[in-house]
Amino acid sequence: MSTTVMKYEEALARFEPVLGIETHIELGTRSKMFCGCPTAFGAEPNTQVCPVCLGLPGSLPVTNKAAIEGIIKIGLALNCDIVEWCRFARKNYFYPDMPKNYQISQYDEPLCVDGHLDVEVDGTTFRIEIERVHMEEDTGKSLHVGGATGRIHGADHSLVDYNRAGIPLVEIVTKPITATGEKAPLVAKAYATELRELVRSLGVSEVRMEHGSMRCDVNVSLMPRGASEWGTRTETKNVNSLRSVERAVRSEIERQAAVLDAGGKIVQETRHFHEDSGTTTSGRSKEEAQDYRYFPEPDLVPMAPSREWVEELRASLPELPAARRRRVQGEWGLSDLELRDVVNAGALDLIEETVRAGTDPGAARKWWMNELSRRATEQNVELADLAITPQQVARIQAMVDAKELNDKLARKVFEGVLAGEGTPDEVVAARGLKVVSDDGALAAIIDQVIADNADVADKVRGGKVAAAGALVGAVMKASRGQADAGRARELILEKLGVS
Ligand code: ZN
Ligand code: MN
């Protein structure tokens, strides 16, 4: 299936994108939203269920206080107003992974309203207005078996796992995001990144997109430049990584621009993002808007968080990411640009943890921003998803500091750790990577090199000390890069009687 697209630059010259982002975040409470079932990720299917989260007749939900605490913290961190009184609502629809055939959610009475989150792209701050933050419960998970893609198309049967059904879910909805121009994809990614950092700093969720504990739906529409009326939007569902948020927005802009350019109409629909191609395909049409027949949930009392409780929670908020960045910038002595690069690379946590493990900030930043960023790009993954921990980076740097590794050997250790060969020490041992600074071992190599390069050695003896560089090079080569170059030079000059 091929889709016509317009080149991004041309699309942006002619159209102005308007975005909206809905994010679902699973809270990391020990028990589910309305029952006592555990919430651990990855358990055997259907082992964390009970009559309440299976929606069996006669069972009654009870609200999880820790979840309400979590959502209020998120609301406060997003500068929202926490309402004094609100209710849950039933959102009715049929889907196999939703056992009750309704989801307990919130409709016209969300718990948190009117917030904002500032994000920075290339030195410009964009204020993302938050419409609402509401509380709901997650659905179960369908598993489509027998097809190539794991999607329902081509599958021969489907299984359902209700372990996730009833896990507390916070939904965060932005107001329309306008006037971002060609930066729209980057603003979308920056928002998702900042939101993830913010929620993670609160300690209320793991916010791991690869586990589905943070999921973004991205709305995109285009309007001709100079127009005042927004275009029809599409909603790209469950975009599963930060990079994909950016790519999904970009590909929707390119696709919609081509449709509009050819005189076509954008269909209001949900679309699926494909990681492999970086494009979206049509999902379910929303032209006949679904009627969820919302009504107030009769089995639950309203939520009325006292002002004292809200203020207690506000006072308990930790240092938030924006404040933390300012602090770290001062401590590490970074310029605005350097800080921005670190943040954009998703390296702040990693560097901070590496520093905490004993590494000098400059060295920690160097590894993560150069060697490891390059490898992440090669492997097409986020920096944090590389198979190396900050503690391991700190261990490698400690070996460099102890002169057991030089820069080149350290890179080989990184390579080995990333390839799954073990810890830094294991890789050093298995690959025999230690710097040879032992005089005995070096002397044997040097004698051979001097014998093989008698003419060069003579020049050095004759006073051309600069020629010793060639001998040091030969020693490095003979030792496959493992010689301590400084010590080798000293020994060569000593042997040739010119030190
Ligand atoms: Zn349960
Ligand atoms: Mn929702």
What does this structure look like?
This protein has 3 domains: 8-313, no CATH class; 319-431, no CATH class; 439-495, Orthogonal Bundle (Arc Repressor Mutant, subunit A). Helix content is 39%, strand content 19%. It is built from 16 helices and 14 strands. The strands form 3 sheets. A 9-stranded mixed beta sheet has the order 2-5-6-9-1-10-11-12-13. The chain has a 3-stranded antiparallel beta sheet with strand order 4-3-14, with no helix packed on it. α3 (184-202) runs antiparallel to α4, α13 (439-452) crosses α15 and α15 (468-478) crosses α16. It is elongated. Residues 24, 136, 171 line the site of manganese (II) ion. The site of zinc ion has 8 residues, from loops.
| Major sheet details | 9 strands, mixed
Q: Terminal Cα separation, in Å?
A: 72 Å
Task: Summarize model confidence as the mean pLDDT.
Answer: 93
Low-confidence stretches: none
Offer a quick outline of the entry.
This protein has 499 residues and is an alpha+beta fold.
Quick tags:
single chain, Arc Repressor Mutant, subunit A, nine-stranded mixed sheet, 16 helices, elongated, binds zinc ion
